[in-house]
Amino acid sequence: MSMLLLIAWRNIWRNPTRSIVVIAAIAVGIWAIALTVGFINSLSDSFIRNSINYDYSHLQIHHPQFLQEPEARYSIRNPRPIIDYLQRNPDVKAYSQRVLINGMIASTRASAGVQIYGINLDQEKAVTSLDSLLTEGNYFTEKPRNAILISRKLADKLKAELRTKLVLTFQDMEGNVTAGAFRVQGIFDSPSPRLNEGGIYVRQQDLNQLLGTDTLVHEIAILLHANTQVPAVAQALRSSNPTAEIKTWEELSPELELMQEQSNLTMAILLVILMVALAFGIVNTMLMAVLERERELGMLMAIGMNRQRIFSMILMETVFLSLVGGPIGCLLGYATVTWLGNVGIDLSAWTKGLQQYGYSTKFFPFLSLKEYILMVASVLLTAILAAMYPSYKAVRLNPIEAMRS
Description:
alpha+beta; six-stranded mixed barrel; two-stranded antiparallel ribbon; 15 helices; 57% helix; elongated
C-alpha cells in the first residue's frame, strides 16, 4: 500500500501545471463557498439580532389569552413574583413591563391602526435601546404628560411632525371607547419593520390614566445575555408561573425560524452547485490524465499490477489533489471571512431597502468550525466520487491495445 501511495503522489507531480490548476480550482471553490456561507450567516444573524434586540426580546410573558385576543382585560395576574425572579436571575440582562392596546391614531389629515405601547421609560430603554433609535426629538424629556413617539414611516403617513397633536382612540377596561390627545415628542426609525409600520410609544402612566387603572401589565419582555440561556430561563419561568404564558423569540416570530430554514436551504443549494462544478473539473482533468497514460497503465497491468490497484492508484491521485487544495482553500476562506468579520461589509448604499426587511446596513460574515469541517468533507467526498469514472476507464483498458497506443 505504501508503494502505491508513493507512486500516486509522484504521478500527480509529473504534470505539475495540470495538478496546480486542479489544486487551484479546489482551493478557489472552497474559498468561494466559505465566503458565500459566511455572508449568508451574517444576513441571518443580522435579521435575528435586530428582531431580538429591538422588537421581541428573548422571552415574553403574557396572560394565556392575550396573544389570541389582545384585549385590555387580559393582563398578567400578580406580576410581582415574576419581577422578583427576574431581578435575582444573573442571566437576565434587562426586562420591560408594558401595557399594550390596539387602537387608532389620527392627525388632522390621516388616520391609521396602531399598537400602543405604554412603557416604563428606563426599563424600555434598557431592553430595546429605544432612545438610540430616535432620529428627531427626544426621549420623553420635555413634555411632562401625554407625549408620544412615532416611527418615521407613520409620521409620513399621518403628515405629522414634532409637536403635532395626534388623537389616540381605543377601548378602556370596561369596553368603552376612550380617546386622548398626545403631542409628538420624538420620531424613531427602528430596525423592526413591524414597529415602523404601526408601533407607537407613550408613558405607561398616561395610558393607564385613560384606561382607568394603574396596575395593568400586558407584557413583560426579557432580554438575556445570550441566546443559549433562553431554554433554561423559559423552563424556570414556566415551572414557577403556570398561569402565565411564556414564549421564546422563536415561538413569537415564526418568520425568524423560517429565515433560518431558508438560510440553511440556500447554503445547501449553493454547496451542491459548487460541488457539481468542482466534480466536472476533476472528472475532466483526471480523464485526460488517464487517456494520456494509456500506454503506461497498460504496461503496469502487463507486468502484474492488478485492476484493483490501478483503480486505487487513480483514486489516490485525486484524493491527494483534494488534500492539498482543501487546506489551502480553507486557509484562504478563513483569512477572508475573519478579515470581513472584523471590518464588516458596508451596504449603506441600500439602507432603505435593507431596513424595510429588518436588516442592518453592515454585515459581519462568520463561519463555525462545524461549517469548515463540512466544507472539507464535502470537497473530499466530491473528489472521490468524481474520480470514480476516470478510475473505471483506467481498469477497463486492454493491456495489449494500451501498449500499442
